[in-house]
Amino acid sequence: MKKLFSLCLTALLLIGCFSFSASAANELPFELKAPANVSVTWLEGGDSPTTMAFAYSLSNEMTSFFQKYDEAAGNGSLETLLKDYGFDEMWMMVQIDWAIDDVNDAVSGWHYTKYWDAGENGIKYDENWCIRTSEWDVVDWGLNNWTETVQDVWILRSVPDDERWNGNPETKTPGVKDQLNPDQYSYYDDTVHIDFTKHTAYFRARFVAVTRKDTSEGAKDQYYFSDWSAVCGYGKDAEKTGILKPGDVAAPVIADLHMTDKEFNGNPIVAFTLTVPDELQQQATAVAAAGGMIWIETEARVKGDAEWTALDGDRDIKAGENEWKLIYLVSEAHPTIPKDTEIELRCRYNVSQKEQDDFQTDWSKVISFGTDDIALGSQPAATGDPNSVPVDPAHADPNACPICGFCPQPLGICIFIWLLILIVIVIVLFIVLKKKKRK
Prior knowledge:
6 helices
């Protein structure tokens, strides 16, 4: 009897463990990684004497999911998209921590506290609804456009001589002055000044994902925090970032050219899948922080034509589907562009940097309908190697089983786990029956 009890207990423990793993895998539709690339630059007195432009990147997995999220929200299928995740809506924010000169200094070091996490009243509020973070603590900044790889935000902006600078002892809200050492700044003309030839500003960032579930007791929010990113900085001791030159940026890697079901002014819209390798993410983030940008230029032609025509569409860098309008191909030779028209397409990156001449990369390979030799469902390229196999994240199934990748997950658990549970039950029954037979 003791052996039977032990076996049953083991089976129950196995069931509990597997159920937990399956539900944990469904908490978010993507892995919440820290921002892979962060970069910052001083605006040289533009906006305010201390303002910095901070840029960071989203993973391909994130931008691809948010493309689907936006589409589902627009066409009324959001409930279907999120049905396996246990929540009804979600959003993302970024937190940016800062320090001056020494990240471990008790006053001017990292300013993260428990109030950056979600307490009973959410981020930055204490139990009495008092704000416990300063004007320079970026704790709940929403993303500009979560389908784009590179995001940017202005930080360390001017604070006037009021509670934002001096703080509020009653509410225990810190002022920016409380977070600096006296020898690190000057204050005049109703704003703070820092000499970045003598001082260094350091930054790190992390993502915050928030999910919301509507219940009979009201909306319930769940917060998820990524790890902190690597540290970047500007000033006296910060590592200097280089200027990109022609040849530094690889040509775009594109695949899967196809007609969409959308139209613009009666003419179809085509889409292709763009792979955004790690190296390009780093380059685009650094350029954005320095006030520049890298954007996509796309040309197309009806197959057989000699001339290429510039198109209008998704110029910003984002992994997954990029859409382009074919109306610009309309001409005397092609008064209309039917949906069965075979199109050829190519694109390249334009690189624009502050106080530098703009330049373009090489053109991508030419792709057309039915000639793409890159298989769907391939894995993301892990490096900037243009010959590596590109990803098609826009076609990845968000509802696929996280264990085997293909089963329908009965009751939210992989079918192979159910088989294992069944085997354990059969073994237990066999032992019980054998014992009864002996008696």
